[in-house]
């Protein structure tokens, strides 16, 4: 391991994030009352942004100079180390403004450790596009911090490393391995021989779709700030909203359908979007993963619509027993249950809610227009099951990815056939492409690690939360980068009440899930650091 190569690249990443933090800092100054301009350092978030910028630029510049000799040292191990420690370093820097703000609130946040843990949790949730939040009254949070949450989503969705490759095309350190370690999915197809060109294309498509959604949301009545924040969150499949009630707060069918459509787009491999923009729509027709992704969504939407339209919510007495971090009074629960029941009355409303929540879960975006914890247990289980799927490889979605689900299913069917046909030779194919044994082993290994991590995390979380359903869905919601789960972390709940040790377990789970486990585990092996 050439540590100088790692230090140089992380220094460059710190410089990038330091410059980007000037954007939310500008919003903080813009929102500052005229009377407070002379005493702006008394505003905690402004102080936090200034400290974060100084830390990022000073350490980034120092690392770039000190470790300049390592800029051309290449190796697979360095690539994965840069991705892992780069994400951790940038999350630390961006957590500083949140830590200052949360520590200033008093009460429980008189503890710096709690403020830092919550700030780091919020930012890691943003960068990993998980969308799990510790905030309760989101409307009271300064716009600068809300924009920072959205920005971390947007940067993490397409990848901080891919952005750095666009800005610094000659970083000199194993660009492809960094790119491979960050972009989700078992394949990382390059459009052009030069990786910086591929990264530029991906970011170009990403920016175009984000701009299109922003314009459409503004057409539907959202202001510019909220349109940008929600577009960032949608295209990154993140789920952070500027409202405590998420998308339901806008009470607009138009906004829901626009976000539903763009969640669908965000779950598709961005290389397919690029080809479509160049007029090649046949790529969608022949891409087996896209067909499977679309079919899974359509089938789920129809099932959820049918169950909600014919059976409605779960019985009130059953739903009332579900664990919540703060239990509602009988009167509060009755009002909430009645409102949710009215929301799905009629076929159209059931279809609209089913479409939005299915896309929000299967693409791992995590937005909410309904309290799906009140739905029948069959649908609650179905949603948790879908959390394992995620979007397509090369999309911004989390989960295991559709292509891995397809490959594992094909392997299982082949082994079943071999029971009665021992001499059967049946290579695994996706479309016309034969999957070699090395890739099959990689996919199966990832699925086993993903399930193993899910089990270990669920068991660990059961030590810190008093409800098994909450503990189990805490695990998959963070590893799969979904955000909301069931019970204590449901669509109308948050993660703020979970003890500090539990939050750090989930922080690690979010990082492992977003960087697809292998990237982080490779770096944690002691042998990797030996020369």
How does this structure look, described?
With 531 residues, the protein is mainly alpha-helical. The protein has 23 helices and two strands. The protein has a two-stranded antiparallel sheet with strand order 1-2. A hairpin with a 2-residue loop joins strand 1 and strand 2. The protein is globular. The model is unreliable at 170-176 (pLDDT under 50).
Secondary structure layout plus pairing:
Blueprint: H1 3-20, H2 22-31, H3 44-66, H4 76-104, H5 112-127, H6 143-158, H7 160-167, H8 175-182, H9 195-219, H10 224-235, H11 253-266, H12 270-277, H13 282-286, H14 288-311, H15 316-319, H16 330-343, H17 347-362, H18 377-387, H19 402-420, E1 429-430, E2 433-434, H20 437-461, H21 468-479, H22 500-514, H23 518-524
Antiparallel strand pairs: 1-2
Helix pairs in contact: 1-3, 1-4, 2-3, 2-6, 3-4, 4-5, 4-8, 4-23, 5-6, 5-22, 6-10, 7-8, 7-9, 9-10, 9-11, 9-12, 10-11, 11-17, 14-17, 19-20, 20-21, 20-22, 21-22
């Amino acid at each position: 391991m050439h540590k100088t190569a790692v230090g140089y690249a992380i220094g460059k990443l710190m410089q990038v994030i330091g410059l980007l933090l000037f954007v939310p800092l500008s919003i903080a100054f813009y929102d500052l009352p005229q009377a407070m301009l002379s005493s702006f350092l008394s505003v905690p978030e402004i102080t936090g942004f200034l400290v974060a910028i100084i830390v990022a630029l000073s350490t980034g510049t120092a690392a770039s100079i000190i470790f300049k000799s390592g800029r051309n040292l290449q190796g697979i191990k360095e690539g994965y180390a840069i991705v892992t420690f780069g994400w951790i370093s940038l999350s630390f820097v961006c957590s500083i403004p949140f830590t200052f703000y949360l520590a200033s609130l008093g009460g429980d946040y008189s503890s710096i450790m709690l403020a830092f843990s919550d700030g780091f949790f919020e930012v890691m949730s943003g960068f990993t596009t998980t969308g799990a939040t510790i905030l309760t009254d989101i409307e009271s949070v300064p716009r600068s911090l809300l924009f920072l949450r959205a920005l971390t989503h947007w940067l993490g969705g397409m990848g901080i490393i891919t952005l750095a490759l666009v800005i610094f095309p000659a970083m000199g350190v194993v660009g492809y391995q960094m790119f491979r370690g960050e972009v989700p999915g078992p394949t990382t197809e390059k459009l052009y021989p030069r990786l910086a060109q591929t990264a530029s294309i991906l970011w170009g498509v990403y920016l175009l779709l984000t701009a299109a959604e922003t314009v459409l949301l503004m057409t539907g009545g959202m202001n510019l700030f909220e349109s940008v924040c929600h577009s960032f969150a949608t295209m990154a499949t993140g789920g952070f909203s500027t409202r405590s009630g998420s998308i339901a707060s806008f009470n607009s069918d138009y906004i829901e359908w626009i976000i539903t459509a763009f969640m669908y787009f965000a779950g598709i491999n961005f290389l397919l979007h690029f080809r479509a923009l160049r007029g090649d729509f046949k790529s969608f027709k022949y891409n087996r993963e896209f067909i499977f992704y679309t079919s899974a969504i359509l089938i789920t939407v129809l099932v959820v619509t049918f169950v909600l339209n014919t059976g409605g919510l779960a019985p009130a007495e059953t739903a009332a027993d579900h664990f919540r971090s703060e239990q509602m009074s009988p009167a509060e629960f009755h009002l909430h249950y009645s409102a949710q029941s009215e929301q799905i009355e009629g076929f159209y409303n059931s279809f609209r809610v089913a479409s939005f929540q299915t896309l929000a879960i299967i693409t791992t975006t995590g937005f909410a227009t309904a309290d799906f914890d009140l739905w029948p247990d069959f649908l609650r289980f179905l949603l948790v099951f879908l959390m394992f799927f995620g979007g397509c490889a090369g999309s911004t979605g989390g989960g295991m990815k559709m292509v891995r689900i397809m490959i594992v299913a094909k392997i299982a069917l082949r082994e079943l056939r071999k029971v009665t046909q021992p001499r059967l030779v049946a290579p695994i194919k996706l479309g016309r492409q034969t999957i070699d044994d090395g890739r099959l082993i990689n996919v199966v290994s990832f699925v086993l690690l993903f399930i193993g991590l899910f089990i270990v995390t669920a068991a660990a979380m059961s030590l810190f939360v008093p409800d098994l359903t909450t503990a189990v869905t805490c695990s998959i919601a963070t590893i799969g980068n979904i955000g909301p789960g069931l019970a204590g972390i449901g669509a109308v709940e948050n993660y703020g009440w979970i003890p500090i040790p539990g939050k750090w377990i989930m922080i690690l789970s979010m990082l492992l899930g977003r960087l697809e486990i292998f990237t982080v585990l490779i770096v944690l092996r002691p042998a990797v650091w030996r020369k």
